[in-house]
Amino acid sequence: PLENQMKTPGDMKGWNGVLNTSMVLVSCLYIGVGFFGYLKYGEAAAGSITLNLPVNEFPAMLAKIMMSMAVFFSYALQFYVPVELLNPFLQSKISPRNYLKAEYALRFSLVMFTFGLAAAIPRLDLFISLVG
User: Fold this and answer.
1) Which is nearest to 67 in space by CA: 81, 52, 79?
2) Which of 70, 75, 80 shows the shortest CA–CA distance to 29?
3) Burial of 110 by CB count in 10 Å (0-12 exposed, 13-18 middle, 19+ buried)?
4) pLDDT tens figures, 2-43
5) pLDDT tens, 49-102?
6) Residue 6 has what DSSP assignment?
7) 91: which residues sit within 8 A by CB, 6+ positions away?
8) Residue 29 contacts residue 23 (beta carbons within 8 Å)
9) CA dist list (Å): 27 to 4, 7, 31, 33
């Protein structure tokens, strides 16, 4: 869906396309955080590196706050593709003047469903490792 909306869809693919470049950068960031986190904490490294940060130091609190803000503002973006797939089915069942309300309700429901799963699964870190 994203490629179809680009001005030049050919820029999405290729060895230096948007997708590959962004995935290489994200992978390097994850590898770097993992490497330095393991270098610092060794076998005592928790499932999330933020769990190892000291509770009462300002830089650690700032890192946790920034991570929380990043998740808060970007979490719903993960539902772009599911909403694009479910929205036509949903819109076929309702009147055209309620399309926007229905899309917001769908997005809200998906977010609340995943929050409910996160609250209901006791060892979420193990489940995420299983699912991916």
Assistant:
1) 52
2) 70
3) middle
4) 666 677 777 667 777 777 888 899 999 989 988 998 899 988
5) 888 888 899 999 999 999 889 988 888 888 888 898 998 898 888 988 999 999
6) S
7) 99, 102
8) no
9) 25, 26, 6, 10
Helix (H) or strand (E) holding 73: helix 58-74
Burial class (CB in 10 A: 0-12, 13-18, 19+), 91: middle
Burial 31-62 (b: 16+ CB within 10 A, else e): eeeeeebeeeeeeeeeeebeeebeeeeeeeee
One-letter amino acid at 100 equals L
* Residue entry with tokens 């699964």: 121
